[in-house]
Amino acid sequence: MNPYQQAVTDEEFNTNDGQILGGVAIGIILFGQAGYSFPPGSVENAQTFKYPVLFHGIHAASVESVVSPKLDQDVISQLVDAGLYLEQQGCRAIIGACGYFANYLPQVVEKLHTPCFFSSLMQVPMILSSLRPKQKIGVLCANGKVLNSAPVLANCGIHDPSRLVVAGAEELPEMKKILSGVGHYNTYKLEQGLIGLAKDLVTKNPDIGAFLLECTLFPSHAWAIQKEIKLPVFDFSTLIDWIHSAVVRKQFYGYM
After folding, report:
1. SS3 107
2. Which of 91, 152, 174, 243 is the most buried (most CB within 10 A)?
3. Under a CB-based contact definition with an 8 Å cutoff, are residues 249 and 175 in contact?
4. pLDDT for 71
């Protein structure tokens, strides 16, 4: 059967009160003012996705308020409000466009009815279960110091950090621009810095079996990193594509 024959079905379709659009399954919560640019591949760039996404920014969220082990009550309140809005517009899953939004994950999911995925690190338990017991995951993150001191790991279901080898990019010149919010950075120079960090991790830790990129900007460089280290590389794009495949199932057809 041709799947397009199922485009119109004999059933009632309901619209949420206040819903003004349809057909967007993935909602993405952004910083209200990020202070950095968004290359293709980043979560903040709509061209990254092969399906529609609905972006919604919150002004309380910034590098200072989110990339920190200290919780900000305004961020919590606005994350909940943003999540409720995205639910209202028909989104079936909600993404937080910063890995450190996971600091706030328990407080937000308690108030929403839609699944929330606030960090690419949520893939870590699944990746670890695919590796040999002594293998580890190399993690490239925006700020390694914060990652090790914040509730992000526990909120993502990571209870054995010893199986992670973390490299923070905060000392890279281009990452310093991003974290300070100057509004621009050189993507090529950032990519070369990330490749250097990844290669150094693998050299020092030959038991690494996979890589995880924590920052929403890093998927832009996943291909180049994998080309150098020859390992599976997971990031926000692999997470969001997987989520979309679950909330928008495709009908199978053909013959036997």
Report:
1. helix
2. 152
3. no
4. 86
- Cβ pair 199, 232 in contact under 8 A: no
- Sign (positive/negative) of CA torsion 179, 180, 181, 183? negative
Q: How far apart are CA 253 and CA 3, in angstroms?
A: 7
- Residue 2 pLDDT level (bands cut at 50, 70, 90): low
Report pLDDT for 63: 84
Structure tokens at 149: 């001191």
Percent of the chain with pLDDT over 70: 97
Distance CA 33, CA 158 (A): 30
Rounded Cα–Cα distance for residues 215 and 142 (Å): 6
Q: Residue 184 — φ and ψ, nearest 5°?
A: -160, 160
pLDDT digits (tens, 9 = 90+) for 161-177: 999 999 999 999 999 99
Please give the structure tokens belonging to residue 168: 């923070």
Residues of 17-54 as b/e, b for ≥16 C-beta within 10 angstroms? eeeeeeebbbbbbbbeebbbbbbebbbbbeebeeeebb
30 secondary structure, DSSP code: E
Contact 61, 87 (CB under 8 A): no
How far apart CA 107 and CA 176 sit, in angstroms, is 30
Give the separation between CA 121 and CA 157, rounded to whole angstroms: 9
**Residue 12 pLDDT greater than 90, yes or no:** no
Does residue 63 contact residue 179 with C-beta atoms inside 8 Å? yes
Q: Is the pLDDT of residue 210 over 60?
A: yes
